[in-house]
Amino acid sequence: MRRGIKVYHRDFERRCFELRDRADLIVLETKCRNCDSYYLIDWPIMHYIKRSNLTPHIPLNGVKCFECKHDNCIIIP
Ligand SMILES: [Zn+2]
């Protein structure tokens, strides 16, 4: 059974708090388009800034789903 969105948000806030001293990293909520798994990933902020002109529908380069191993994870807008 999948966890609810409130749990997702709490996990997101917790991870942001854990990384509060890391100005070079941001936390992204991502979803696998293949199996619908949800992930939080730490992402270098410079990579995110460089991506800012791209749509969230373009998979994150180099991020593989932990469940199905497909590299088809997108940022949840
Ligand atoms: Zn997957």
Which structural traits does this protein have?
77 residues; alpha+beta; 2 helices; 23% strand; binds zinc ion
Overview of the molecule:
There is one protein chain. By secondary structure, the protein is of the alpha+beta class. It has one domain. The protein is 27% helix and 23% strand. It has two helices and three strands, in the order H-E-E-H-E. It has helices at residues 5-18, 45-51, and strands spanning 25-32, 38-44, 73-75. It has a three-stranded antiparallel sheet with strand order 2-1-3. The longest helix is centred in the N-terminal third of the chain and has 14 residues, at 5-18. It is globular, with a radius of gyration of 13 Å. The relative contact order is 0.21. The model has no long low-confidence stretch (mean pLDDT 84). The structure holds zinc ion (ZN). Zinc ion (ZN) binds at residues 32, 34-35, 37, 65, 67-68, 70.
What is the element layout, followed by pairings?
Blueprint: H1 5-18, E1 25-32, E2 38-44, H2 45-51, E3 73-75
Antiparallel strand pairs: 1-2, 1-3
Bound molecules: zinc ion.
Sum this structure up briefly:
The chain has 77 residues and is α+β, with helices and mostly antiparallel strands. It contains two helices and three strands; from the N terminus they run H-E-E-H-E.
